[in-house]
Amino acid sequence: MIRESYNEDELAVMRLAEEALERGATRLVEIRNFALKSGYKKIGLAHCMAVAKEAEVVKQFLSKDFEVLAIDCKTGKLPKSEFLGDSAVGISCNPLGQAEYLAANGSEMNIVMGLCVGHDMVFGMNSTVPTTTLLVKDRVHKHNPIEGIKNIGEKAL
To answer: Which of 6, 28, 47, 77 is the most exposed place for a label (fewest CB within 10 A)?
Structure first.
């Protein structure tokens, strides 16, 4: 039986996800519903600098019900040269630093907004609490990757 593959914590998350569903609601509202039903008090928001304005809107929305810990990707201001060699210029993203900051400050659930491919993976690998994605980065399609999928599908036909 497939159900036996899930442990009790995973089954609890699946039940809460079902309870958080609200017909006609946005993903943000469903995330809020899930967090409320879970009894969370502190939510972490790890976001890219490119969506800082949108992250602020999300923070304000969630702040009605939770303490929101927001941290942008450039935390720690790490030079790219430390990761990519001496010829690299600029400030690197720091998904490990984002995850560590949220853990150290007691986040009970994390939301990812617009982290780069790979950076989102590093964040997820180091998040110590349940994590969900609200927004993925797609520079071409204004952070709406389904448009890219549709374009590929149309070209393949």
So the answer is: 77
Instruction: For residue 117, report the phi and psi dihedrals to the nearest 5 degrees.
Output: -60, 135
Element (H, E) at 81: helix 81-84
Of 106, 130, 112, residue with least CA distance to 42: 106
| pLDDT beyond 70 at 131 | yes
pLDDT digits (tens, 9 = 90+) for 77-107: 988 898 888 888 999 999 999 999 999 999 9
Question: How far apart are the two ends of the chain, measured CA to CA in Å?
Answer: 39
Which pTM was predicted? 0.90
Residue 136 token pair:
């993925």
